[in-house]
Design goal:
Elements lengths: L27 H21 L2 E4 L11 E4 L6 H10 L5 E4 L17 E3 L4 H16 L4 E3 L21 H5 L4 E9 L8 E10 L7 H20 L8
Parallel strand pairs: 1-7, 2-5, 2-6, 3-4, 3-5
Antiparallel strand pairs: 6-7
Helix pairs in contact: 1-2
């Protein structure tokens, strides 16, 4: 069932344009729009979704890292990406279909890196990812790929999602959205847990480290969600 709050795109077969402005510096109007988005995101998380974030203090402020998370909130997940790091802007790896979302798609370049399918644009994407990481932008990946509102379990994830972190020998943090029985009403309370860091072994290959990061991240996600409250939106 599709959540009423889920922003959708009819352009599921969309591709990333060859001239897509990866890591484009925002102009003054775009900065204002992002600030207004930040304010609304804080309001929405606190008063609409009733979200509590635990252990935020573990996230580095002056060094880059990768953050892996389960994907269960169409608006809550991107709003967390905005509010956790403001005024810094993260780089969230997203599907090109997001470019087709009304209004939002026009400003996706402010905090997202849509993943291309053609080789030429993929080279630009990889360069943009590396540049963003080296300029201290947190990199956020939802390895489950597709959002499934209020999903109480962790879905299958691939080691491929961890290759960028392993290749850059980056520390990895895990963000798990969990659900608790509501005190009032029907919708569950949302508790977001932050864990880490997980560090690649410099003596191992990128492939070995990707496997380690994937396995360890999965253990953390499963551990945090094992007592999830089940809610059917």
């Amino acid at each position: 069932m599709k959540s009423k709050e889920e922003p959708t795109s009819r352009h599921q077969d969309a591709t990333v344009p060859a001239d897509y402005p990866y890591n484009k510096r925002p102009n003054p109007l775009e900065r204002l729009i992002y600030f207004l988005l930040f304010l609304y995101a804080k309001f929405h998380l606190k008063f609409i979704l009733k979200t509590t974030v635990k252990n935020k203090k573990i996230l580095p402020k002056n060094s880059p890292f990768f953050l892996y998370a389960n994907h269960t909130q169409p608006l809550g997940d991107p709003f967390l990406a905005v509010t956790l790091f403001y005024p810094n802007t993260p780089r969230v790896l997203v599907s090109p279909a997001n470019l087709g979302i009304p209004f939002i798609g026009r400003f996706l370049h402010l905090a997202a890196l849509p993943i291309p399918s053609d080789l030429k644009t993929l080279k630009r994407f990889n360069r943009a990812l590396k540049d963003a990481y080296e300029t201290n932008h947190p990199i956020i990946i939802f390895p489950e790929a597709h959002v499934l509102p209020y999903c109480p379990i962790i879905r299958e994830i691939s080691e491929k999602s961890f290759r960028p972190a392993a290749k850059l020998r980056s520390d990895v943090y895990v963000m798990t959205t969990t659900y608790k029985k509501p005190k009032f009403g029907k919708k569950p309370r949302i508790i977001v847990h932050l864990d880490g860091p997980l560090s690649p072994d410099p003596a191992k290959t990128a492939s070995e480290n990707a496997s380690f990061l994937c396995t360890t991240t999965l253990k953390t996600l499963h551990s945090r969600t094992k007592n999830n409250y089940i809610y059917y939106p």
